[in-house]
Fold these 3 entries.
Entry 1:
Amino acid sequence: MARKRQGVTPSSRRTFIKVAGAAGVAGLAGCAGDSGAETGGSGGTTTIQYWTLFAGGDGEAMKTLVDRFNEEHDSIQIERQRQPFDEYYDKLFTSMTGGDAPDLAVFHAPQIQRFTDALTPLGGMLSDGAADAYVDSIWQETEFDGDQVALPLDTHPNGLYYNKDIFEEAGLDPESPPTNFEELQSAADTITAETDKQAFSPDPYLRFFVRQFIAWQHGSGGEFLNEDNTEAAFGDDNGVALAQFYHDIANEWNWDRADTTDDRGTKAFRSGDLAMTINGTWYYGVLAEQDFDWGMAKPFVAPDQSAPQTWANSHTLGVPNSGSNQEAAVEAAEWITQNSLEWGTEAGHLPAAQSVLDSDDLRSSNVWEKTLSTFSDMAQNDELSYMPSTENNENYTRPVNNAISQIYSGQLDPEEGIQQAASDVTDNLQG
Amino acid sequence: MSTDSKTRFTIPKPKTVGLYVTLYGAAFLFIVPYLYMVSTSLKTEDFAFSQQPYWIPPEITFQWYQAVLQGAPILQWLINTLVIAGATTIIVVIIDSMIAFSLTKLDWPGKRIVFTVIIASFMVPIYANMVPLYTIISDFGLLNSPLAVILPFSAIPIGVFLFTQFFKDLPDSVIEAAKLDGFSTFQIYLRIVLPLMKPAIAALSLYTFVYTWNQFLWPLIVLQGETSFTLPVGIVTTQPTQVFQPGAEMAVTLIAAAPLFIVFLILQEHLVNAVQMQGTTG
Amino acid sequence: MATKDTGSILSRLPGVDALDSETRDGVLFALPYLLVFGVFLLYPLLKGLYMSLFDWNAFNPSQSEFVLAENYVRMVQDPTFWAAVRATALFVILTVPTLVGLGLVLALGVSQDIKGKRFLRTVFFSPYVLTVSVVSLIWAEMYAPQYGPINYYLGLVMSNPPAWLNSFTFAMPAVALATIWWTVGFNFVILLAARQGVSERLYEAARIDGASTWRAFKDITLPQMRSAIVFVTTVQLIASFQVFGQVFIMTNGGPNDTTQTLVMYLYRVAFRQQEFGYAAAIGYFLFVVLVAVSLVNYKFVGGDD
């Protein structure tokens, strides 16, 4: 759905690319097929229904993985069903209540908690040593109450993307993007003064503000929710200062228009009218299609980032407990998550499988040089902020996105707005 | 129309000029969104993202149509929509005409109450019902099946209402005569009533077809998989892929609008009649 | 009845057998519709009332907790619900009078002696055959802030054109305008038929009496077209109270819930927040409002035809 405002979780679906460099990738397709347990085809072929929410570059990359799986397996075949991004979890929910759930489905890590009752604990069904196959920190994101309920596919953090052509036009050094607030300020002011471009937008979609807000709130030493996720903690001075920053970008410093119509920022960035924006790993694929020169840096550019953090999320694969093909689904999930090279090289995400992450194929690819090395660096430094897992994450995403959207477009007072949002979030979490 | 108004062909009155300007001005404004859709769907990315609108693109491309047709199962959606709208229409015409025949031309105890209940539920909004209806559909295991849309939309009483209005006007003597000729009730319905009611049937069919074809919310809820979507639901779900390509967005919009639009241009008189019939009998 | 055919006369006798067969046929012919009607319209209506009294467990309905009127109490205290009521009321106020009024104006215009009637009718009626998603996607592009045509032309004459779908003030009017483009044709053709059904003799008589155009409109056109006007108003009220697709696609209820209408809130509560019991209560509220609206409309404006 194009014009939705809920920032449930990030998406790589907001991309539209014809896969760049597909030829280079196709050559790799044959060399990664060593999945462990190949069940003998005693009863013919098991077909499993697999729900994804990927489109664009992610959709293409996932298709590549699934096609390869189907080619290499006889006893199991995956049938991919693509679902609309904004309705994905609604549909998953309705399918589970209706007893019509898929055998295997993609979940964003913070969404898992909402579905734990309807997911199969994977423990006994995993092949030996599965736990060691994944990057440890991501592995833990998929554990709930001691049960492993999903397998991680990737990590996808946010970065600061910038248009080098505009930097040059403004007389800035295109090889030194801003690394902190003061540098952002001087660069953005210069761009605003020297060019007719917009300088900076913290969310090109202008509806997922909560993502980077949480990271920056942590970065300035604040908390987003309290420890047991029962209360909002962002109504403090840090949160108010951050809200003021969002307000000033468009209403004080004129770095962007005071208008949060969906997707305005990404249209502007892609058409070369916006110099800097913050977005996830998937933007690599989108920008590969543009005809300007661009770069990516760490997005630690909000004021007072003493312990810098960036937003991150993970795609994971879970097995609904109503399905009859659970063994096969687990096998498919293991294979997909551990043979995910194209998920990095094509879709631009950080693979969660250690061997893929360390592979030469990935490290020597263009995406590694362009963006992934920076993302990987931030992951190594523990600079990633995941969104909190709650019963229903809309309880906090919606009030915060709504408030910042109004603050950004100059229709709401920053202090009042963010504190009201905090009290709404607390009500929702306790209600 | 008086005779002098026909012979008066000299200078148009200012009032007439005003009328023409108003109506054709309004007509122009009505066409603008179509123009925008068509022209944007043919623009290359550069011109689609241009701040200045190009009504006639300086450079024409069909790449968006190609991308959209390859990227989404549009043909499948078209077939699904056709099946759902077609089946609903057929069922509605059959069961509504049967009960209308029964209510107007047959005598049986309790039919007044039945008629009153049906007419009273004329105003029940299907959306107010959507949660309980969803659980019922789900209990029947019909989620994701075309029947999940067909059956609830076959329950809407508007056709019963319309048909009873028409069947009332059918003289009883025709039916009596048929009975005397030894026709069974079913034969009377099939060979006398239905043929005489063709205009009403045509009107209701068209109306039901268009109405069901265009449904959005209910199919969005009960149709789960990409392959079972209808066109109105499907084209919205393709948007995340194409959202940043106004060209692709308008191309998919145009493709979705085209089938019914063409039908409309061909059958315009009938569709207008169908809608007008509601207004004059209602 | 004049025939002497004995078989037919026998079958016309008011005997028990004959009565039974007509009753049997009557019920048989009514049954298919009644079945569908009962299961998919009446039953949900009752089940909705039942569900609204529970804290409904969607995954496991048997574990639902009976809470009596708690959902209704919550509804009355829920500020988001009342915001949705206000948004719906605003949409109704913006659309219904305009849709009926504009439909009437266009119908009266086209019914005059002018050239190109058929063309005009085609143009005004055509958007009605589009689906809501098509309409919403086109208009969202038209309203787009930086790359849309509307603001381009406004930008030529004013310095700061509104951010239509993003503005507290303009989002709902913008959605209303798109809706008017979409459905005014329906009213237009019905009112056109009604106008054409008015006998020209009435106007001629009025002209002979020296009545002004306005008087003719007030004393002839309006009364003669009354039942059609009542009909389109009722249909329009019901449609506008249930607006969903336009706001869902164009604004998703934003900015800050100002365009979140009742049906949209209902959808969100049911399928995003998974609270079926509360959603059923909201559905019942909507149902009662709509029944009341159509009754009032028929009573006050309609009379009894």
Entry 2:
Amino acid sequence: MDSTVAVAGADLAAHSGFSLFGLFWQAHIVVKIVMLGLISASVWCWAIIIDKWLLYRRTRAAMNRFEDAFWSGQSLEDLFRTLSGRTNHALSAIFVAAMTEWKRSHEGDHPALASLSQRLDRVMTLTIAREGERLESKLAVLASVGSAGPFIGLFGTVWGIMTSFQAIAVSESTNLAVVAPGIAEALFATALGLLAAIPAVIFFNKLSGDVSKIISRMDAFADEFLAILTREIDERLEEERY
Amino acid sequence: MRVGLIVSVAGHGAILLWSVIAWPDAESFAAKPIEALPIELVTIGEVTDISMGSPTAPVEPEPKPEVESVESESEAESAGETETPADSPAERENPSTAESAAPLPSEEPEAPAEEAAEPEAESEPEPEPAPQEEVQPEPEPEPQPEPEQQAEAEPTPSTDVVPRARPTPPPRRQQPTQSAASQSNESFDADRISALLNKVEPSGGGSGASQASAGIRSDGTNAAMTMTELDALRAQIQRCWNPPIGAQGAEDLIVTVQMALNQNGTVSGSPTITNSSSNPFFQAAADSARRAVLRCQPYNLPLEKYDTWREVRVTFDPRDLF
């Protein structure tokens, strides 16, 4: 009796195999859903990681190029003219927003210079916030997957182990051959959860560090640019007084 | 975003493909059916005495049935024989006399009366006064009527030969039946019993020996520490114990000491007193017990049972001394 059950269990194990697909196909439907969810989460996480990595690289290159152009001694009017025609990001966006506000303040006969520096500051802060939001978008997904992935995998594991204990109850045998397949497929769910979560956590830390560096660089540029503009505003106010 | 998604999907697909190719099916393990292990529950006793049985140990046959068959053969003496299996040595002494006695009936016709009489006189002096030389010529009225008649008819010693031979056998047959005298029984049965006994080497015969040999061989692999070893430890400690005998209520000063022992029998750490008492002398008794434990180390205990005496609790009871 006992031996026949053991042999049947061994046959079952040998039949379905312990390959990845074998582990997947013989799993319970809940465990299958968990596995599919974790695999899609992993795909999505890696898509975000690649996308953000490319985006930050592009952003840093553009910032470098803009700073080179900005500090090259060329007239800010010319720079604005070249940049205003296209969509801008990061430093150029801040520059364009500030210059747009500057131009709008000088329209008409009496330039509104009194609170221009405050307005410029607001505009640049707003732009930085918008740029930061754009850079940080979807990083929350990485954080969520990184923290919840192991739990989701663990849920699949617990469910699979529940199933294998039910198998023990049904077959009335605690033979390893009866228990092992269920536990193997259950542990596969945890493995997938960790597989999705570990890169998500690592790259979330790295990418959020990159974002904060880019934002602080934008802040620095905004402060510098504001200093230049306010100096210009003060000079013009001085001119108007006399 | 599209680039990232495409790259991610492609990467996952590649990893999945690689893992399917690189990881063939795990080797299927054949679960061997577990053989049933017969387990016998041993009754719990005060003293652990488990000896491991070995299937290769020789099974010794029981000698008893042979003895019983001897008993059954000698129907006449069955009443007297019940005890004889035990005193087999008594029977084994006899063969010398029994052999000399056995040929008697056949030889008697030719043998002179004196020769035939002599062995009898040695073995059975009491019941046969007839064969004696002085008496032979004279008629013997008491023991047997037949020999008397023959003796009367031929009083001369020369003619003794024939008549003398006949009378002797009857008394021998009669005597065992008449008197349940053990000596005559022995002499009569000796050849048969010894013949049977000689085929089977007499073993100790005790019931204990036959029980012990029923396929059991003692290997000395008793797992648990038996009481005697604990007692030995206690005795070792007690040698060094100097209890406060003069104290008031000293017989109530029971001290329980718990100690940890090292493998070489020394006490590791300091022994702790696990009980307490309101007796003012208890502290002194506890100190004396602790001193005794420390003074008598190292203790001589079997190393293979270290697990059982690693943690020992010893009770010092002054009543044992009184």
Entry 3:
Amino acid sequence: MMNIYLFELKMYKKSIIIWSIAIPFWIFFYMAFFPMIAADSVAFEMIMEDYPEELLAIMGMNAELPMSSILGYFGLTFSMTQIPIAIQAANYGFHTLSVEERELTADFLLSKPITRSKIIISKFFAAFTSLTIVNVFIWGISILSLYLFKGEQTFELRNVLVLLSTVVIFQLFFLSVGMFISVSLRKIGSVLSFSMGLGLGLYILNSLRSLFSSDIFGYISPYTHFNPAYILIEGNYHKVFTIISLLIIIVSLSMSYFLYLRRNIPSL
Amino acid sequence: MNVIEFNNLTKYYGDVKGCENVNIQIKEGEIFGFIGPNGAGKSTTIRTMLSLIYPTSGSVTVFGKDAIEFGHEVRKDIGYLPSEIFYYDKMKVIDLLNYSASFYDHDCTEKIHELAEIMELDLTRKIQDLSYGNKKKVGIVQGLLHSPKLLILDEPTSGLDPLMQQKFFNLISEENKKGATVFFSSHILSEVQQLCDRVAIIKDGEIVKIQDVKELQTDNYKKFKITGLSLNHSKFGIEGVTQLVESEEEVTFFFKGDINEIVKILSTLKLKDVIIEEPTLEEIFMHYYE
């Protein structure tokens, strides 16, 4: 069982390195602009006032947490960062159970003396470990750049930590939903288009929620469940949304397990 | 003892029939041939043994255990060579083989090197750089490295040159002598003829016949080729003659029945030559596929 886990991790190696550089760079790059915005905060607020409220809402801005405050700006950065986090997690989800069939190595792996249950568990944990490695870098760079660019401002570190702690659930959401969809379908052609579709689709759903200020759109979107502005202001998870997220994860994982164990592996 | 037992195995893919009511018993130490054209249900039958697919009804037992329920236990002693070979392209051959070996309890290092030497396989190359035939060799080593008690070979010889094919057959025979049972699927009858003890013929997902390879040849048809002068008198239109082709100088046909009947007719003719042959399996099987 350990051999599949290690093998899979090795297969992720390159991907982990790329994502561990790209996402932190993304965060750092955004945060680096903060000192400029803070310096011109008055002018900036005036520009913002001219925008329609709906547009600001879509962009995740909030009157209580203005963009010229370090946490407000971080919240905005973070909501942008959620997109690549989602795409990476979805990518692993769609990939991990479908790769053998797509690359026709299923006959090799599944004819080995190992239960499918062990295969799916090893694969899940390998993907999850890979995501967690990237997550560690996200934590590090977030905290680092907050302190680096905050200037004279102060902020509530606890709220930041609560927000960062949502990343793991957020990743699990996309990983497990990706796995579930991939075993529900006969074949996954292009993993990237599926993961972009899921990652961006749910983001758009969350934007619609902001636009119409109607929660209906947000019930299945983790971008809504873990809205950075909400968490940074409240310093806590939104309970109902978090429970919905967890339920979707549990259902997706159980269904993936169930379907993978009963899957017919088509011959070539 | 039966190593494999198919009991009324049926597999439907939705409405499409994969195989139906397959009943075969394969004894320990046997080399069993499994013959049929592409799409006849060979792979479906094989894949249920490895629980790659699940039967619609019926069952398969391997080593006396249900192949689905105890799949992972059963697969410890199975070596499987799929018809098309695909491996993780970016790996080196040796890394793939070591990964393969890591699924088995015992150390396979020695056997890997031994097999690679016989098959003339370079272990240090990347799999994506290998030719089709060399990938096939990786498959062979991969299927044999844990010294399995049951070998399942699905069209194993495609892509191997005749020399390698012979080496491969020798390897299989050797494993068989050491006690391994072999399940050999193919659509090339001559290789089955060369290697197998018994053979099952599958057509449209159903087994049409299971027979001893030798019996299949002797009990059945004789192939006649007669040359001479003015032979075309429709004399051979008797019962038991099939595929009759008559011309003035040459008559060919297959015959099953009392050989004396033919000899009587022959004695009335002026002949140059008579050739009486065992038909090849191909020729026998054409009969089932007419």
